[in-house]
Amino acid sequence: MKKYRILYTINDLGIGGAQRQLADLIFGLLRIGNYSICVINLNFNNKFEIQRELLNHGIQIITFTPKFRGDPRIIW
């Protein structure tokens, strides 16, 4: 069976509506199986509460630290 790869980019992983929805979506996909999931945390607000929860479930997270808010170099 084919394994699907998902990459999701988000501005931070603090406690918030979009972050909670992302975590719930990931946990639902993990129950189904056949997904390789990676989250890119742009870390604009230096918040990590949901990140800890995702790491505890084995989700790969790549964290970038911008030099200033809105730093366009973070995309590259």
What does this structure look like?
The protein has 76 residues and is an alpha/beta fold. The protein has two helices and three strands; from the N terminus they run E-H-E-H-E. It has a three-stranded parallel beta sheet with strand order 1-2-3, with helices on one face. The chain is globular, with a radius of gyration of 13 Å. The termini are far apart. The model has no long low-confidence stretch (mean pLDDT 86).
Compact description:
The chain is α/β, with parallel strands linked by helices. Helices cover 32% and strands 24% of the residues. The protein has a 3-stranded parallel beta sheet, covered by helices on one side.
Write the SSE topology.
Elements: E1 4-10, H1 17-32, E2 35-41, H2 49-56, E3 60-63
Parallel strand pairs: 1-2, 2-3
Please state roughly what percent of the residues sit in beta strands, choosing from under 5%, 5-15%, 15-25%, 25-35%, 35-45% or over 45%. 15-25%
Unreliable stretches, pLDDT < 50, 5 or more residues? none
- SSE order, as H and E? EHEHE
> Which strand order spans the largest sheet, edge to edge or round the barrel?
1-2-3
Number of E-type strands: 3
Spatial extent as radius of gyration:
13 Å
- Tell me the helix content: 25-40%
Helix-strand category:
alpha/beta
For the largest beta-sheet, the strand count, sense and barrel status come to: 3 strands, parallel
Global outline: globular
Distance between the termini: 33 Å
SS field, number of helical segments: 2
Q: What is the arithmetic mean of pLDDT?
A: 86
